[in-house]
Amino acid sequence: MTDAPTNRSAVSPPFDRRMLEALICPQTQTTLDYDAANQELISKAAGLAFPIRNGIPVMLVDEARTLD
């Protein structure tokens, strides 16, 4: 018998929508929209999508995805 690690749920913790009241785009200082399907915070003004990883928004421009 091996001591393999147990497979924990791959589901990330949920993003707390109340954080939207405190967060702004680091580039434009404008409000953000929450995209639950893609787990991203969207800055329409900057044309960027900031990822949410493990329930924590990554508010770094270098980590953001450019919107089409």
Topology:
Elements: E1 33-35, E2 40-43, E3 48-53, E4 56-57, E5 65-66
Antiparallel strand pairs: 1-2, 2-3, 3-4, 3-5
Could you please describe the fold and organization of this structure?
A hairpin with a 2-residue loop joins strand 3 and strand 4. The protein has strands at residues 33-35, 40-43, 48-53, 56-57, 65-66. By secondary structure, the protein is mostly beta strands. It has no helices and five strands. It has a single domain (17-66), classed as Single Sheet (N-terminal domain of TfIIb). Strands 1, 2, 3, 4 and 5 form a five-stranded antiparallel β-sheet that branches.
Comma- or semicolon-separated keywords:
68 residues; N-terminal domain of TfIIb; single chain; five-stranded antiparallel β-sheet; 0% helix; UPF0434 protein E1B25_16060; mainly beta; Trm112-like
